[in-house]
Design goal:
alpha+beta, four-stranded mixed beta sheet, 18 strands, globular, binds flavin-adenine dinucleotide
Length: 349
């Protein structure tokens, strides 16, 4: 097919929020060699580079991107037993569907319906419903821009934690080319159902296993009800998914949080190093920002308090104004600082 180069190309249609200005140069690469050549060219020219997958975790500023946007459109799905290798440009939700529908394998079935590319999944350690890719990724093959070579990073070298990884920590260093997973052949059964809401929906106890296809369908149903499966006709899905991560509080921060009135029933989950994770959706809702909040072109989703959405004509500034109002409101009510999950391009919260 060959590499495709366009100048002054609109980026909004390439993102799920459908906002933001144009790219000075948009390069679409269909092979790993084309990806690497485009990165090398931009780096040699000292040109800013933005790697773009499905645009489902990006807030691009209204001024656009003053450099090269490299759109990864590589293809490849290779399964050998339970070892899966996928190219970065593959659509994640289709990868999940194929492993479940065609092969009856478990390991990523609860990550059904998450938009975007396979190559972006290690970047923020994509997770939902008690599963995250850190549990099944064995290796990530990436182009290391600092060393100018292709490297293979083991799971441990990826530095995965909650919605974080080495790729996010060093954003200008790695371009993910391929991701390798170890899936599970449980005779058609899922991994244990970890999430209480999924267990309730499935009518099983947490820890039980169900048919892998049943788990996949249940997740899609639950996600659709929250506007978390892309539907171009539904503005509640014109979002970047959850806009804020769930705050992880140190013991001292949690103690101080619990002294605030109204926090008695705040969700609390144990997190590493003696920390406590609470719910961003709960904080937002209790700070007075209910579903559908906002009267302008950007509002909270009518189905989920955690998704900031474009009702059709929002600019990045409209969306950010809403995000700042919510962040400041939660800080004033609970003393907790919400942190954005999507990557900001040329803008700050
Ligand atoms: C409706 C909706 C629901 C969502 N639900 C979830 C959810 O349940 N759980 C969850 O974790 N996320 C969720 N998300 C967020 C998003 O789908 C994921 O973060 C996804 O992995 C982003 O993939 P992408 O290809 O769209 O990345 P993009 O938005 O294109 O890029 C995101 C970041 O990754 C970088 N990147 C992309 N590809 C590569 C690559 N090949 N190499 C290096 N860097 C790269 C980009 O430069 C950017 O910094 C949701 C989003 C939406 C819109």
């Amino acid at each position: 097919m060959g590499v495709l180069v366009e100048n002054d190309s609109p980026l909004a249609p390439l993102t799920t929020l459908r906002l933001g200005g144009p790219a000075r140069r948009l390069v679409t690469a269909h092979t790993d060699d084309e990806v690497i050549a485009a990165v090398r060219e931009a780096d040699a020219a000292g040109e800013p580079l933005l790697v773009l997958g499905g645009g489902s975790n990006l807030v691009i500023g209204d001024a656009g991107f003053p450099g090269t946007v490299l759109r990864i459109a590589t293809e490849g799905f290779a399964l050998d037993g339970t070892a899966l290798e996928v190219a970065a440009g593959e659509t994640w939700s289709e990868v999940v569907h194929r492993t479940v529908r065609d092969h009856g394998l478990a390991g990523i079935e609860f990550l059904a319906g998450i938009p975007g590319s396979a190559g972006a999944t290690p970047v923020q350690n994509v997770g939902a419903y008690g599963q995250e890719v850190a549990q099944s990724i064995t290796e990530v093959v990436a182009y290391d821009r600092t060393a100018d070579e292709v490297v293979t990073l083991s799971n441990a070298e990826c530095g995965f934690s909650y919605r974080h990884s080495r790729f996010k920590a060093e954003p200008d260093r790695y371009v993910v080319l391929r991701v390798r997973f170890r899936l599970e052949d449980n005779d058609g059964l899922s991994t244990p159902v970890r999430y209480a809401e999924t267990a309730r929906h499935l009518g099983v106890e947490p820890g039980a296993r169900v048919a892998v296809g049943t788990a996949w369908t249940a997740v899609l149903l639950l996600r659709s009800g929250k506007g978390m499966v892309l539907d171009p006709a539904d503005h509640d899905t014109w979002s970047a998914g959850s806009f804020f991560t769930n705050p992880v509080l140190t013991a001292a921060q949690y103690e101080s949080f619990r002294t605030r009135p109204g926090t008695e029933d705040a969700p609390a989950y144990p997190a590493p190093e003696g920390c406590t994770k609470t719910s961003a959706a709960w904080l937002i809702d209790r700070a007075g920002f209910g579903k559908g909040y906002g009267g302008g072109p950007a509002t909270l989703s009518t189905k989920h308090t955690l998704a900031l959405t474009n009702r059709g004509s929002a600019t990045a500034e409209d969306l950010l104004a809403l995000a700042r109002e919510i962040r400041d409101g939660v800080r004033a009510a609970f003393g907790v600082e919400l942190v954005n999950e999507p990557v900001m391009v040329g803008v700050k919260l």
